Amino acid sequence: GVLxxxxxxxxxxxxxxxxxxxxxxxxxxxxxxxxxLRKVAGLLRCKPDVFAILRATGxxxxxxxxxxxxxxxxxxxxxxxxxxxxxxxxxxxxxxxxLGDVERLTATTNEIVAWLEAREFTGRxxxxxxxxxxxxxxxxxxxxxxxxxxxxxxxxxMISIASxxxxxxxxxxxxxxxxxxxxxxxxxxxxxxLAVDSFPYLVLAGMAERHFEEIARVLKRPGWLxxxxxxxxxxxxxxxxxxxxxxxxxxxxxxxxxxxxxxxWDGNAFLLAx
Length: 274
Description:
Helix content is 48%, strand content 19%. By secondary structure, the chain is of the alpha/beta class.
């Protein structure tokens, strides 16, 4: 978390070695914080290339919108940005906190999978829609836990990577979609919808409400929505308020309202039912 924030917010003129020295000079009151900073400094010294990858990957995706940008224009820009980010690092492009390390990403993915399975989200007879599937990490991790899974993404490069990595999985389908709606899918066609770190970009593009409407349409009864991270605005209160309002408008019930259940990732978890 600390290293990611440094990579995203510090000017590019500050290199990894110089930053390591700055970090070591910080004297926090909390011993836990001090230990985390020492770890960050160690990473900066031993793996300066990781810091460069984070800086480049994070810099490829702009999390603000121009005043004159339409919703569709934001989605198109984000699609190009994710293509660029995935070209730098597949792992970092779907989760910067992985530091571009496949093993770190796999550990977090497995932790999320365990959380989903503990809440009976998966099942051998279930069809799952994965919104913002990225490089197909959940398709691979869950492949024995569903009947059919459709992963969608706005990034052609991410879909290309996912297609390579999921080529042997006969119960997985991958599609590049517009990001504007779920028009490719029929009413009541999925038991579950999964959205991991994709809604923040729908919020940015002004498409969150449209997607709640569409999710409610494609879900069967009963059906479930697992939404991990609603936005990046830093207000869990606002996220809960928005999700509560959208759930009520589209006949969904909030079962889990913004927990932080993961050790390796700071995502907020929401679980809704239809």
